[in-house]
Please model this.
Amino acid sequence: ENDASMLFNTINERLSYMEDVALFKAVNHLPIEDSPREKRVIASAQISAATQGLDSALIKDFFKAQIDVAKAIQYRYRADLLSQPRLDTPKDLRLEIRPHLIRLGDSLIVQLSNYIKKHGQIQANEFETFNSSIEHRYISDADKLRLFNALMQVDYLNKPDSNKLD
Ligand SMILES: C=C(O[C@@H]1C=C(C(=O)O)C=C[C@H]1O)C(=O)O
Model:
């Protein structure tokens, strides 16, 4: 397994939790969108990005795309739950799923950082691998493009040129 597919699999793994998230919210009559939580997820990603020396504004854009796709999956699945209710007990969102999503976000950033260090920014020719790694019945082609485009932007923060005279 190469560096790119390892990273893409982590992105896919994060998205694979969204049906569990949606089920917990449906059972507990909670809305899908939770803006305070989104702010925390993004803040945590920006801290990890800064630790890796990545441009945290670009990581923020990528995480916004990930969160939008995460919500799209939840809305589609929640619609299905109306006609096909599930009777099993959902995993606990706060105690179980969310801490895991934060850990996945952290390893995703480390994997992305290692990839860029070795190969440079993600290029368009990786899309085929991305396309086959991101597999979820509720992810659309538009969702995939949005995610991949944001991913291709991520790069290290420009270091100030120490030799530059001012
Ligand atoms: C995954 C969740 O659902 C949504 C998506 C989020 C995410 O992808 O991190 C965060 C908050 C919610 O708007 C959640 O509530 O934890």
In short: The chain has one domain: 3-153.
